[in-house]
Specification:
By secondary structure, the protein is of the alpha/beta class. Helix content is 24%, strand content 19%. The protein has a five-stranded mixed β-sheet with strand order 1-5-2-3-4.
């Protein structure tokens, strides 16, 4: 299994609301560039997954091609998800230095996705109340 440090340049995103779908989180904060990876680092034949924390502190695993991803409570669960999705082969793991927000449907833990939504609502309420 390979681990690659990935420093992404933040790209401003239009603010389209906190969530586009109930199970997919869409944030307007800068996020890693999920575009193609440098072929000198990772071959197209090797599945690659971005693994990192989102703004709420939960772990996100997302396929570099945007086919599958999920939100998890622990880093180990995110790594296990990435390995399971790339079976029978292993995958390359990329740990971005910026927060990773899930921008596709959540195939991870649905309870954690709901908890992330409640956390975001609570933060908004606290900002409004103070």
């Amino acid at each position: 299994m390979a681990a690659i440090a990935f420093n992404a340049v933040p790209h401003p995103q239009p603010d389209s609301g906190a969530f586009a779908k109930q199970s997919a989180m869409v944030m307007s904060e800068p996020k890693p560039d999920f575009q193609s990876l440098d072929p000198d680092i990772v071959s197209e034949a090797i599945p690659a997954f971005f693994i990192g924390r989102n703004r709420a502190g939960f772990w996100v695993a997302r396929d570099a091609r945007g086919r599958v991803g999920g939100i998890f409570l622990l880093k180990g669960f995110a790594v296990d998800f990435a390995n399971a999705q790339s079976r029978p082969a292993r995958c390359a793991l990329i740990f971005p230095s910026t927060p990773v927000e899930l921008d596709i449907n959540n195939h991870g833990n649905p309870v954690i996705a709901a908890l992330a939504q409640l956390t975001a609502l609570a933060r908004r309420f606290l900002r409004f109340a103070t």
